[in-house]
Design brief:
heterodimer, A: alpha+beta, Rossmann fold, D-amino Acid Aminotransferase, Chain A, domain 1, 3 domains, 6-stranded antiparallel beta sheet, 11 helices, 30% helix, globular, B: mainly alpha, 3-stranded antiparallel beta sheet
Chain lengths: 349, 75
């Protein structure tokens, strides 16, 4: 008989398309664990999210309403699914849903569902629009950042800004603008898609390096793998990347967890300048879509996250294999209209 | 420079940036000697010993290669 612990894990972010969510790579990591006998329950927003149809990775999938439909509708649907599935843990993987999970963490815990997420104050502090103030408070270098709500604000840039600047969406998308006209174009493009505010950020010259890391919520870093993108799509997503040895970046991540006591995964996006300064340009509050690189390099971060959510102590992982690469690819899943019908009509598959 | 992984076939990997390069036999010799802490003069001497090349040409090529390494932040 297997002595693996049986757990039911809900996972969001099954949108494994050209702008992929972290759900599927997170599931791959958990599935590779020899500690758990997992039932994966996929939680999807759209009926064509590929993860719904990946039957070898996702045991059962349900549609859930977008967080924008309100926290009551969202949580009610989660509880409805919980009645059937009996979640032990839910791993949220999308920025936009995190607020609800954080504010309902205690409620969910009372229902028997663990969600390993950071405290609300630090979650809000590291938000793109507040990142500069975050850097000043905790002692990190951050390019000047300001949230604006009116395209007219681009005509006279705030003090300390000059072109080029980054134009960024509240949650997603970023473009470098080299003059006023480009800035207006990107402002309108992003605002139409993601709403306001738009964040403008000082353009710091250097090399972008990223890290996926995990904190235990007590100030300790449990895992960290730095990565350099080798191939970037037109959406700015890494399509290939390599694990690099960057002790300064690991130390930066360690500092972040020590100072903020962050619980859960993060993706640190950093610009390393020629004189070896590290500017944080974004702190994504969840595991990135490339988290499986860390698994391949020797740190099973999704498994460690699951263990932390279950209240286990996890020994910090320090080693990983530098030079491990990921190369993303697309793949045509074959499904049938009857599956599409089920997810459409019944909201589950 | 010390961290560079240099394969026998001339494939060079910089683990701190993730960048990789390809070099020829002489380039590999130069990189290996730099890793051992050898001076430019010692490297030049070795090249002259091993290859049929004039001192002027070897000096010029070595300087060019070293400048390229600096350009790519490899030294």
């Amino acid at each position: 008989m297997s002595d693996k612990r049986k757990v039911v894990v809900g996972v969001t972010g099954l949108n494994n398309h050209d702008n992929p969510g972290p759900g599927i790579p997170t599931i791959r990591g958990i599935r590779e664990s020899d500690r758990f006998d997992v039932r994966i329950v996929g939680l999807a927003y759209e009926n064509l999210e590929p993860g719904i149809y990946m039957r070898d990775l996702v045991d059962k999938a349900y549609l859930i309403p977008y967080p924008s439909s309100g926290s009551d509708a969202f949580i009610n649907r989660i509880m409805e699914i919980h009645q059937k599935e009996g979640f032990d843990v839910i791993i949220p993987n999308l920025d936009a849903e995190l607020y609800i999970f954080i504010t309902h963490k205690e409620f969910l815990r009372q229902q028997g569902i663990s969600v390993f997420v950071p405290e609300l104050d630090v979650f809000e502090e590291r938000h793109k629009a507040n990142l500069y103030e975050f850097g000043q408070k905790y002692g990190f270098l951050v390019p000047k950042t300001k949230a604006i709500t009116d395209v007219k604000d681009l005509a006279f840039l705030p003090e300390g800004f000059s072109y080029p600047i980054w134009i960024k969406g509240k949650y997603y998308e970023a473009y470098p603008a080299y003059d006023y006209h480009q800035a207006v174009h990107y402002f309108n493009k992003i605002a139409a898609k993601w709403g306001l505010p738009i964040i403008i950020q000082e353009y710091v010259k250097g090399t972008e390096v990223n890290a996926v890391a995990l904190g235990d919520g007590k100030g300790n870093m449990v895992a960290c793998v730095p990565m350099r993108k080798q191939y970037i799509t037109d959406k700015g997503k890494a399509w290939a990347g390599i694990a690099i040895k960057d002790d300064n970046l690991v130390k930066l991540a360690e500092d972040f967890f020590r100072k903020t006591r962050w619980a859960g995964g993060i993706e640190l996006e950093v610009i390393k300048t020629k004189d070896e300064k590290y500017y944080i340009i974004e702190i994504n509050p969840r595991l990135p879509a490339w988290v499986y690189l860390a698994v391949g390099a020797g740190q099973n971060i999704p498994e460690a996250l699951l263990r932390l959510a279950l209240g286990e102590e996890v020994e910090p992982m320090r080693d990983f294999k530098v030079g491990t690469m990921f190369i993303r690819y697309s793949y045509d899943l074959i499904g049938h209209i009857s599956d599409f019908e089920k997810i459409n009509i019944y909201g589950e598959l | 420079m010390k961290d560079l992984a240099i394969s026998k076939n001339g494939f060079v990997f910089n683990p701190s940036t993730g960048e990789s390069f390809r070099t020829n036999e002489v380039g590999r010799l130069i990189l290996e000697m730099l890793q051992e802490g050898k001076s430019d003069e010692e490297i030049l001497e070795r090249i002259l010993e091993e290859y049929d090349v004039s001192k002027e040409e070897a000096e010029r090529d070595l300087l060019e290669f070293l400048n390229m390494l600096k350009f790519y932040n490899l030294m």
